[in-house]
Specification:
Elements: H1 18-21, H2 24-28, E1 32-35, H3 42-51, E2 59-63, E3 69-70, E4 76-77, E5 84-92, H4 103-117, E6 125-128, E7 132-135, E8 138-147, E9 153-161, H5 186-206, H6 211-214, H7 216-223, E10 230-234, E11 240-248, E12 254-258, E13 261-265, E14 269-272
Parallel strand pairs: 1-2
Antiparallel strand pairs: 2-5, 3-4, 5-9, 6-7, 7-8, 8-9, 10-11, 10-14, 11-12, 12-13
Helix pairs in contact: 4-5, 4-7
Length: about 280
């Protein structure tokens, strides 16, 4: 359980702890942060908290020791304590119509890619459709969005490989700040991520969910390193579609040009057949 409730904090309060002060830039960006020593799944905990009405917009639950993290399709995500940063953010999305909410995880991926790129100059950083952030073609972060009992709130979780050593990387296609010879400034990363994501969702809501008019389509398309790649897409029915990823449609679906024509994919695992 969180060690303190979500609340607006006076940053001049002399009673603030070092843990509070560690997130000053993120708090200045609007995040209301609870850090816990460990968690099973920050997403599961924040979904439950939001459902009870105990968390609001930009409430953040984070830990450097997540023991039962989950990815898409209920895959288990684990990392050694201190090697990664698990961050879950509650977002008020009542201004975004339901059909447009598929853009939320895509915008989260673009926001995180921007935050990661700011600390890894010269690297090829982007978002792999629909939910991963890659650096030079290797995964540094995964994104998972989930609904809550409050239909106006969604929770977006991310697991960022920060201090994971090369020996600790789970697969050859993974990477981390440490493996790239960099030290992640966690506060800066979270501040940049929250700011970019909040601004993008505000714009999407103001445009009544129109991703093109709001700029969401352009933002995600620029960040998406899947576009232009030869891909193999594992579809929910078990089949595999192969072709070139051409574009994102107005609903955020990946348009793949196959031998049989254009296919708009709304869900599926994507493998880049050629290196990014």
């Amino acid at each position: 359980m969180p060690h303190r409730a979500w609340a607006d904090r006076d940053r001049s309060d002399p009673g603030r702890t070092l843990a509070d002060m560690a997130w000053e830039r993120a708090e200045a960006a609007g995040a209301r942060i609870v850090e816990v020593a460990s968690a099973g799944s920050t997403n599961a905990d924040l979904v439950a908290t939001a459902g009870r009405g105990e968390a609001g917009h930009l409430s953040v639950l984070l830990t450097r020791d997540q023991r039962a993290g989950r990815g898409r399709l209920d895959r288990v995500w684990q990392a050694p304590p201190g090697a990664s940063l698990a961050v879950s953010v509650a977002l008020r999305v009542d201004a975004i119509p339901l059909p447009a909410r598929g853009w939320i995880p895509l915008l989260a991926g673009a926001a995180m890619a921007s935050a990661v790129a700011a600390q890894l100059p010269g690297r090829g950083v982007g978002a792999k459709w629909p939910n991963d952030v890659l650096v030079d073609g290797r995964k540094i972060c995964g994104i998972l969005a989930e609904g809550t009992a409050d239909p106006a709130l969604v929770v977006v979780g991310s697991g960022i490989n920060t201090a994971m050593t090369p020996a600790e990387l789970p697969v050859p296609t993974a990477t981390s700040f440490a493996a790239l010879g960099a030290t992640c400034d966690d506060d800066r990363l979270l501040a940049d991520y929250v700011r970019h994501l909040a601004e993008a969702l505000t714009s999407l809501g103001a445009a009544h969910g129109d991703a093109v008019a709001s700029g969401a389509h352009a933002v995600v398309s620029r960040a998406c390193v899947t576009l232009g790649q030869e891909v193999a897409v594992s579809l929910p029915d078990g089949s595999v579609a192969r072709g070139r990823a051409e574009a994102l449609d107005p609903a955020g679906r990946l348009v793949v040009r196959t031998a049989d024509g254009a296919l708009a994919v709304s869900a599926g695992d994507v493998v880049h057949v050629r290196p990014v």
